């Protein structure tokens, strides 16, 4: 066993003129949960499909479990995929769906001489297969559902069957392409938790595709943010959220206030001048000239809490949106700069209204300077 | 509708039971009992086990072919046609090998022979050829010399039939004008047969029905086009039923059909059906059996000719179709009512007025074009 | 403004449609169903008519059916010939279905799965037999067989039937394939199935209803074809050809009886096919 | 664990097996062969024959001196007419004949065959119009008004006769229309007419064509109506359209694909019909279909028949092509 | 003009045995934004359709603009609907879609003698219609798109066309049935803001159906929460969120911690005993015996902040989910009661981990006692 289950090595994929994946490098440690996150069309699915073996890279190499697998076909790779549409075989029962992979593998050790033709002519249903199917169905909390038809299942149950079918062959890597995309919000949240638990329990490597940043933050050990075919940033959820490497990442993950201006170092740190206002920002080695800094709405303090903070300004509330658990305020600084501030409503009634004057402030450490 | 020359086409396959104990040659095949029952000869040649026949629609009583099949152990496949032209073109399209035995009328025998589509009949294989009346053998202008190409099956005339329930006022003698009279508009039919129908029109105009003059043919064509609105349809088949069921009258048809209707409606010594050849005269014809050029079962074809030349069989057929028979030996089995009916067996003075349709060679083209135009006018 | 100003005309018209539209359409539909079924019912009823003429009701009899069972002719219609024609029809249809379903399904797969130069041409040629008048197809085959010197018969009929049935099967299977989710195949491959296994265990079972539907239609088209067969079958008969000859001779109780039997036989056959196919779907 | 299955033999075999066109050739070749040899080649032979000349007794002359376009000329050009005259006569006649209130201003008539062609097309159009007129409301009823749980049965009832032999149904019509048949008796009883012979007439042919082909109109129209989102109609009414406007402006145009498909499915066989006019028609109901058939039957003029068949086919394709290029839509 | 644009008066709708809407009463003030909120199948759409005139009430009366309209057909009512599926006419261009309503109304005052037949025979395209269509398309930010085909538009653009089509006839009431349901999250959020702005700008009465509580909270002047055909609660967003009238409402809107127990009044207020723990709760006149109280996750304080609060307990962190802007903690009290606590991450790095002990507390006023 190598340290890395999956390694992408300068992988590029072109469809005709379209550059779908552009020189992507990453490695996934055995047993980790990696999420590919990015907007629609950024190449997430294509990346996953190259790992699964449905697409061949135009350039670069895909390694699984230490071996270069570029010219192995899907059925020769030790990965399993959970499709967004589930892709359950509609003409088979739950049990048959889950058993399919085992039967196709011809269950090594059992009836070893069976050739492809044999398997073609009949599917086998030995005791061992039955056993493993039933165990896997228990794992996904569908015990005893073997004989159900697929169309008798709810969306969430189908999701679990798809999972069971992928898990039963005990793949080295499980690939999941927006597996929860078709579920409604409530179910989706539940399944997020369950999936994460399952992954921790089984210790299987997960490569998970989503365009939902909240999902990514909640579930992943590591997140690979993709944009337009290339990898923008690779890191843990906290790294990605709190230390975004680019404006794209800052903007794509969570909400943020971006302020563009001129960066300069001063005695006791660094500042950014924008529109006549000087903001204190953390020092950033690469920064120079026109850059930006990002400050999250929940990191901005209002009123008394803003007192004594290095960045502190008079502002006016120009819009408010009530969200129940929090209030979202649009405040305008004297220089016309608009900032969004999130205020958790920790006590009933506590609220600001449009037109009110208010002090805003934040710690420079809570902001990030972005050079690209 | 006015279209295809062959209503009744496509025919029906009568056939079935190979009773034949498949055995050696000659009469070893088939059932001697059946042969004895009908007085059929044993044959001294190998008949083979199948025969493809191309025959006019409804030209023998059902069961006839089965007797042959049983007697000689031959499986017979029969297809039907409704006009000589249809039969001719079917052979052209599919090859003469499709059928062994066909039943062309007089002029068509000549055409087929000249086109090399039939072969000579081997009289040695027909032990009862002499059952035929001499006149049908000696006076067969259509049968090319030398040799013998065809064997007469039935003969008859073409004329007009009517049903007095529909048209009480028709009285013989009448002219072909009958079929052009407005009075019967919408209830008449003419034969769906190029030579017959153009022939009738020619006769009405006082020309020979074998005219080769373009102008005469044109004139006959115009007359037929003029007549068209008065007709319900052109048809050569089940004219007996049409008369009998009062679906059409008067009807241009072949004599036998008229008499089928006559006898079917015959009660208390009378029938509403009448038939006559109009006074200008009309067609006398003889349908014959001929063996195709590429026949695969030449012997079986000869066996079948022998079969229908048999007096009893031939009479059985004649008594069903009500056509006059050319078979002298058969006459003793024919119903007297038919034999004595001058409309079935016309007296000589009537016969003199009648003409055979003849092979008029290249002029056939003129007829074909006229016929196409009539149908599509 | 308080409410939309609507013309009296429109309001009344709309109310009228609301109130009577459904009923009027319903009546029209009933009339059309009657139009479709009355002739057939009348035809069947008259097959029990105690009359030689078969049109005017003269009383009830099962005489014609006993005649049929005894193999006796019913007013010139020879049951023996009908059986042979039926046998030919079944034989031709059976062979045609097997060949055309196989070839048509394969062609549909090729058209669905591959993009290649000439694809739209091939697709066009595939659809052509469906839109070309039958008579053109019949004539061209007749001339072709004549040209190459093939003797016409059951064999040439099968060739012709396959030529048009391929199109029916292809079109239907293509429709099924267009809704086929290709990720199912990927899922199978991902689970270790090779191409043939994937086809055997996933692709085929899923498109099977389409294939069966195509086969059923192909059967019906072959079994019921008259025009093409008429020109290319030589001296043989199929049921439609036999029947065409009968019908041209006019209306007779025998034709009614045979027609009724054909009708019921076809329905029984279809019911059976649906049942068998239904079980396998 | 690594339980991969390795593919045997990597080299040439694998590469050939994996080549993109292997599956294509394997799957497409047999049917392509069949269609090429038994469909396309026969059409080519037919085209070839159509340039031939008929000899006496139906022989076909195909030697160079008899090859030419004479059949087409015979079909299109009236005796002694020049090309412009032919066109003028044909157009003038067609306008005068089929457009109400327009007299035939041309000095002559087109050939009987062109007239026949027009008549067949006219039959096709009339059949299509009638099939639409009676089929559309019924399809609408089944798709929209009938209780949903009866819908499948109602559709099945439309399809059912289609499974019954086509000839049996034509025969049934024949019985209906025969003298003293059901319709005759009905008309007599109702004192509308007495003893009319409905069979063997244009009426009978039209009746038969509509009877046989109306399901081909109903089914596609039903399919397009059934999948049509009813909220579109509601949206229209919400915007001030009354029920008729909503139908006329929204439902009807959106069901047009079904109507068009249905129209082609009815029109094509109706124009080429051979069996129905043959069995139900009288002396004046000849159609191109029958004409073509008779050229291969009693008339024995294959080249002319082949030419007519080819002309019929070209006209069909022209119609479809014009439709498709104008709308970009598919008819099937 | 009456005060109320729409009034539902004891409206009930039955479909066969199904009671889809059950005796619903409400009124919508002119120019207000009312949202019908509730789970799937609760009768929202049916209610809306009765206002539009697509369904007739089985009982009760619908009033629009002061008039009883029960027996007016849809085209006679001065309402316009925006459908979830948009229901754009696919055979018409954008401009034709928008013009449709004007053409059907025959533009009163213009070409007054034109009868229905005339309009039937040709579509009219008068200057005024063109003018109004173009103005309305500008309003929804699709200027100059008149000649586009519907299928050339993105989902968001289609949504705008549907809106324009409904607005162009200047209806008294605009009815919207989950108009944003088919859009993706980002677009949906944008459109929420735009819709709300448009409504305020035009001053048209909106009746808006959604099952998304966040959407409802963000946009509405008033929210009507429906459940199983009947009206559960009618009120402003704050009322609904902070003073839910029932467990159903508390649970359906936002996240909440529900604790069941026995209510009792004590000297200085009220308490609820549950599982051996006594919680201080606000007094509630109707309460008695076994009831429940609800406390929102963001109203619970942790650590020092919990000090001195009337409700204050020792707890252990049993689960944590990182959401970027906030941490979601599952804490367990000594009696086994689990509570969810939301903590806004106002400073980078600040966080709790699983297993840690922590104090939790909340003010009784922040909880609500629920008697049903
Ligand atoms: N088979 C293909 N042929 C041509 N282009 C393709 C193909 N598959 C993907 N692409 C293109 O490659 C790019 C990346 O596609 P991909 O499906 O990987 O995106 P994605 O990140 O998964 O997006 P989404 O979130 O919408 O699923 C897109 O521009 C897409 O249009
Ligand atoms: N035409 C109908 N016939 C029978 N039952 C109906 C009909 N329309 C709605 N119902 C039933 O009435 C109830 C309320 O339906 P309605 O569509 O109003 O719910 P909804 O709140 O809009 O739900 P959703 O959020 O899923 O759209 C449901 O139980 C539904 O099944
Ligand atoms: N029903 C069979 C009638 C045969 C008549 N043949 C006549 C040929 C005349 N040319
Ligand atoms: Mg994707
Ligand atoms: Mg709804």
Automatic annotation (TrEMBL), chains A, E:
Pfam family, one: TOBE_2
Enzyme Commission number(s) of this protein: 7.3.2.6, 7.5.2.13
InterPro entries: AAA+_ATPase, ABC_SmlMolc_Importer, ABC_transporter-like_ATP-bd, ABC_transporter-like_CS, Mo/tungstate-bd_C_term_dom, P-loop_NTPase, PotA-like, Transp-assoc_OB_typ2
SMART domains noted in UniProt: AAA
Keyword Metal-binding carried by entry: no
Coiled-coil region(s): none
The ABC transporter domain, residue ranges: 6-253
Matches recorded under SUPFAM superfamilies: MOP-like (SSF50331), P-loop containing nucleoside triphosphate hydrolases (SSF52540)
Catalytic activities: tungstate(in) + ATP + H2O = tungstate(out) + ADP + phosphate + H(+); D-xylose(out) + ATP + H2O = D-xylose(in) + ADP + phosphate + H(+); L-arabinose(out) + ATP + H2O = L-arabinose(in) + ADP + phosphate + H(+)
Membrane topology recorded in Swiss-Prot or TrEMBL: Peripheral membrane protein
Subcellular location: Cell membrane
Chief location bin: membrane
Subunit-structure text: The complex is composed of two ATP-binding proteins (XacJ and XacK), two transmembrane proteins (XacH and XacI) and a solute-binding protein (XacG).
Family to which this protein belongs: Belongs to the ABC transporter superfamily. Sulfate/tungstate importer (TC 3.A.1.6) family.
Protein name, UniProt field: Molybdate/tungstate import ATP-binding protein WtpC
Species per Swiss-Prot/TrEMBL record: Halocalculus aciditolerans
Lineage, broadest ranks: Archaea, Methanobacteriati, Methanobacteriota, Stenosarchaea group, Halobacteria
Automatic annotation (TrEMBL), chain C:
Compartments where found: Cell membrane
Alphabetical list of Gene3D superfamilies matching this protein: MetI-like (1.10.3720.10)
Membrane topology recorded in Swiss-Prot or TrEMBL: Multi-pass membrane protein
ABC transmembrane type-1 domain residues: 86-273
Entry GO terms, CC: plasma membrane
InterPro entries for the chain: Bact_Polyamine_Transport (IPR051789), MetI-like (IPR000515), MetI-like_sf (IPR035906)
TM regions (residue ranges): 20-48, 90-109, 121-148, 154-177, 198-220, 226-247, 254-273
Record bears the keyword Transmembrane: yes
Pfam family, one: BPD_transp_1
Single Gene Ontology BP annotation: transmembrane transport
Keywords (A to Z) from UniProt: Cell membrane, Membrane, Transmembrane, Transmembrane helix, Transport
Family of this protein: Belongs to the binding-protein-dependent transport system permease family. CysTW subfamily.
Protein name: ABC transmembrane type-1 domain-containing protein
Lineage: Archaea, Methanobacteriati, Methanobacteriota, Stenosarchaea group, Halobacteria
From TrEMBL, chain D:
Gene Ontology CC terms, in alphabetical order: plasma membrane
Membrane-topology annotation of the record: Multi-pass membrane protein
Matches recorded under InterPro entries: MetI-like, MetI-like_sf
Residues covered by the ABC transmembrane type-1 domain: 117-323
Pfam name, any one: BPD_transp_1
Keywords associated with the record: Cell membrane, Membrane, Transmembrane, Transmembrane helix, Transport
Membrane-spanning segments: 21-49, 121-142, 154-177, 197-219, 258-276, 304-323
Biological processes per GO annotation: transmembrane transport
Gene3D superfamilies: MetI-like
CDD domains (alphabetical): TM_PBP2
Cellular localisation: Cell membrane
Superkingdom of the source species: Archaea
Family: Belongs to the binding-protein-dependent transport system permease family. CysTW subfamily.
Annotated protein name in UniProt: ABC transporter permease
Organism from which the protein derives: Halocalculus aciditolerans
Source lineage: Archaea, Methanobacteriati, Methanobacteriota, Stenosarchaea group, Halobacteria
């Amino acid at each position: 066993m190598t340290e890395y289950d999956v390694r992408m090595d300068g992988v590029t994929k072109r469809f005709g003129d379209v550059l779908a994946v552009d020189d992507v490098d990453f490695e996934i440690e055995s047993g980790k949960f990696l999420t590919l996150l990015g907007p629609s069309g950024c190449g997430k699915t294509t990346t996953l499909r190259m790992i699964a073996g449905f697409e061949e890279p135009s350039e670069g190499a895909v390694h699984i479990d230490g071996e270069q697998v570029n010219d192995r076909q899907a059925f020769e790779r030790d990965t399993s995929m959970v499709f967004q549409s589930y892709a359950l075989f509609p003409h088979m029962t739950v049990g048959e769906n889950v058993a399919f992979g085992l039967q196709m593998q011809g269950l090594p050790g059992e009836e070893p001489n069976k050739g492809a033709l044999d398997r073609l002519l009949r599917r086998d249903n030995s005791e061992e297969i039955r056993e493993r199917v039933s165990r896997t169905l228990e794992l996904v909390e569908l015990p005893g559902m073997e004989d159900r038809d697929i169309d008798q299942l709810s969306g969430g149950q189908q999701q679990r069957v798809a999972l069971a079918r992928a898990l039963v062959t005990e793949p080295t890597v499980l690939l999941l392409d927006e597996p929860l995309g078709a579920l409604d919000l409530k179910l989706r949240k539940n399944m997020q938790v369950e999936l994460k638990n399952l992954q921790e329990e089984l210790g299987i490597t997960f490569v998970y595709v989503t365009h939902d940043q909240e999902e990514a933050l909640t579930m992943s050990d590591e997140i690979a943010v993709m944009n337009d075919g290339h990898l923008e940033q690779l890191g843990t959820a906290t790294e990605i959220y709190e230390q975004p490497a680019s404006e794209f990442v800052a903007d794509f993950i969570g909400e943020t206030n971006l302020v563009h201006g001129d960066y300069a170092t001063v005695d006791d740190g660094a500042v950014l001048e924008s529109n006549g206002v000087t903001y204190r920002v953390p020092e950033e080695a690469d920064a120079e000239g026109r850059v930006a800094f990002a400050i999250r709405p929940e990191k901005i303090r209002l009123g008394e809490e803003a007192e004594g903070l290095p960045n502190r300004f008079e502002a006016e509330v120009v819009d408010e949106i009530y969200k129940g658990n929090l209030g979202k305020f649009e405040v305008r600084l004297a220089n016309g700069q608009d900032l969004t501030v999130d205020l958790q409503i920790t006590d009933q009634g506590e609220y600001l209204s449009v037109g009110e004057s208010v002090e805003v402030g934040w710690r420079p450490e809570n902001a990030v300077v972005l050079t690209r | 509708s006015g279209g295809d020359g062959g209503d009744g086409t496509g025919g029906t396959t009568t056939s079935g039971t190979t009773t034949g104990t498949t055995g050696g040659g000659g009469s070893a095949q088939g059932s001697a009992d059946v042969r004895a029952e009908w007085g059929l000869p044993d044959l001294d040649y190998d008949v083979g086990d199948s025969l493809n026949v191309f025959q006019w629609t409804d030209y023998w009583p059902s069961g006839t072919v089965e007797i042959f099949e049983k007697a000689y152990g031959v499986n017979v496949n029969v297809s039907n046609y409704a006009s000589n032209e249809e039969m001719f073109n079917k052979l052209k399209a599919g090859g003469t090998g499709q059928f062994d035995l066909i039943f062309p009328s007089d002029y068509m025998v000549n055409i087929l022979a000249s086109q090399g589509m039939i072969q000579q009949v081997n009289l040695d294989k027909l032990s009862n050829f002499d059952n035929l009346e001499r006149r049908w053998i000696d006076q067969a202008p259509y049968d090319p010399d030398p040799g013998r190409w065809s064997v007469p099956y039935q003969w008859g005339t073409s004329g007009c039939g009517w049903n007095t329930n529909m048209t009480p006022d028709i009285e013989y003698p009448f002219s072909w004008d009958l079929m052009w009279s407005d009075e019967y508009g919408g209830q008449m039919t003419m034969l769906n047969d190029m030579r017959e129908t153009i022939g009738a029109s020619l006769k009405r105009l006082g020309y020979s029905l074998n005219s080769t003059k373009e102008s005469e043919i044109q004139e006959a064509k115009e007359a037929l086009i003029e007549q068209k609105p008065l007709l319900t349809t052109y048809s050569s088949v089940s004219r007996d039923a049409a008369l009998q069921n009062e679906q059409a009258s008067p009807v241009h048809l072949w004599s036998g059909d008229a008499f089928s209707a006559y006898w079917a409606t015959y009660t208390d010594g009378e029938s509403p059906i009448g038939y006559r050849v109009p006074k200008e005269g009309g067609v006398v014809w003889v349908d014959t059996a001929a063996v195709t050029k590429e026949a695969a079962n030449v012997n079986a074809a000869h066996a079948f000719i022998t079969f229908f030349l048999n007096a009893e069989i031939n009479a059985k057929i004649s008594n069903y179709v009500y056509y006059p028979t050319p078979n002298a030996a058969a006459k003793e089995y024919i119903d007297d009512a038919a034999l004595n009916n001058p409309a079935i067996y016309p007296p000589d003075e009537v016969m003199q007025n009648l003409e055979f349709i003849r092979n008029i060679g290249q002029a056939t083209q003129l007829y074909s074009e006229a016929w196409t135009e009539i149908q599509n006018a | 403004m308080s409410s939309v100003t609507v013309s009296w005309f429109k309001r009344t018209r709309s109310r009228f449609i609301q109130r009577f539209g459904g009923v009027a359409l319903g009546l029209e539909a009933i009339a059309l169903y009657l139009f479709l079924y009355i002739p057939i019912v009348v035809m069947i009823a008259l097959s029990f008519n105690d009359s030689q003429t078969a049109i005017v009701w003269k009383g009830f009899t099962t005489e014609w059916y006993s005649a049929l069972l005894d193999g006796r002719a019913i007013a010139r219609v020879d049951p023996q010939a009908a059986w042979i024609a039926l046998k030919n029809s079944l034989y031709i249809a059976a062979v045609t279905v097997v060949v055309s379903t196989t070839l048509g399904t394969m062609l549909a797969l090729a058209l669905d799965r591959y993009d290649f130069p000439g694809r739209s041409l091939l697709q066009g040629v595939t659809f052509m037999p469906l839109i070309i008048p039958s008579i053109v197809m019949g004539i061209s085959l007749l001339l072709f067989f004549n040209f190459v010197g093939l003797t016409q018969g059951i064999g040439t009929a099968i060739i012709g039937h396959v030529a048009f049935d391929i199109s029916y099967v292809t079109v239907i299977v293509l429709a099924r394939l267009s809704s086929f989710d290709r990720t199912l195949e990927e899922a199978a491959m991902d689970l270790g199935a090779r191409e043939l296994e994937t086809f055997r265990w996933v692709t085929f079972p899923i498109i099977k209803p389409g294939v069966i539907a195509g086969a059923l239609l192909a059967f019906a088209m072959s079994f019921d074809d008259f025009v093409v067969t008429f020109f290319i079958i030589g001296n043989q008969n199929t049921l439609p050809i036999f029947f065409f000859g009968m019908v041209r001779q006019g209306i007779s109780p025998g034709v009614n009886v045979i027609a009724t039997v054909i009708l019921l036989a076809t329905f029984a056959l279809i019911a059976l096919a649906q049942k068998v196919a239904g079980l396998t779907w | 664990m690594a339980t991969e299955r390795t593919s045997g033999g990597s080299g040439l075999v694998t590469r050939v097996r994996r080549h993109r066109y292997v599956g294509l050739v394997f799957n497409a070749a047999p049917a392509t062969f069949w269609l090429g040899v038994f469909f396309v080649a026969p059409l080519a032979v037919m085209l070839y024959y159509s340039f031939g000349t008929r000899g006496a007794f139906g022989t076909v002359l195909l030697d160079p001196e008899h090859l030419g376009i004479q059949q087409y000329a015979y079909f299109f050009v009236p005796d002694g007419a020049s090309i412009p005259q032919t066109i003028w006569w044909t157009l003038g006649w067609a306008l005068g004949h089929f457009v109400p209130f327009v007299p035939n201003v041309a000095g002559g008539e087109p050939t009987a065959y062109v007239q026949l062609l027009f008549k067949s097309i006219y039959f096709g159009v009339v059949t299509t119009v009638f099939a639409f007129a009676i089929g559309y409301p019924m399809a609408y009823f089944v798709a929209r008004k009938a209780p949903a749980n009866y819908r499948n049965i109602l559709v099945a009832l439309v399809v059912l006769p289609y499974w019954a032999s086509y000839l049996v149904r034509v025969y049934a019509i024949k019985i209906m229309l025969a003298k003293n048949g059901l319709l005759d008796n009905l008309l007599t009883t109702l004192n509308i007419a007495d003893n009319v012979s409905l069979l063997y007439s244009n009426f009978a042919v039209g009746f038969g064509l509509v009877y046989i082909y109306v399901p081909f109109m109903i089914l596609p129209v039903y399919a397009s109506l059934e999948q049509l989102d009813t909220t579109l109609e509601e949206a229209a009414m919400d915007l001030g359209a009354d029920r008729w406007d909503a139908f006329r402006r929204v439902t009807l145009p959106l069901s047009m694909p079904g109507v068009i498909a249905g129209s082609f499915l009815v029109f094509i066989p109706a124009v080429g019909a051979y069996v129905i006019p043959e069995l139900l028609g009288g002396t004046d109901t000849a159609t191109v279909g029958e004409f073509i058939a008779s050229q291969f039957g009693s008339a024995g003029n294959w080249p002319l028949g082949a030419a007519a068949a080819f002309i019929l086919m070209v006209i069909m394709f022209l119609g479809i092509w014009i439709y498709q290029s104008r709308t970009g839509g598919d008819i099937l």
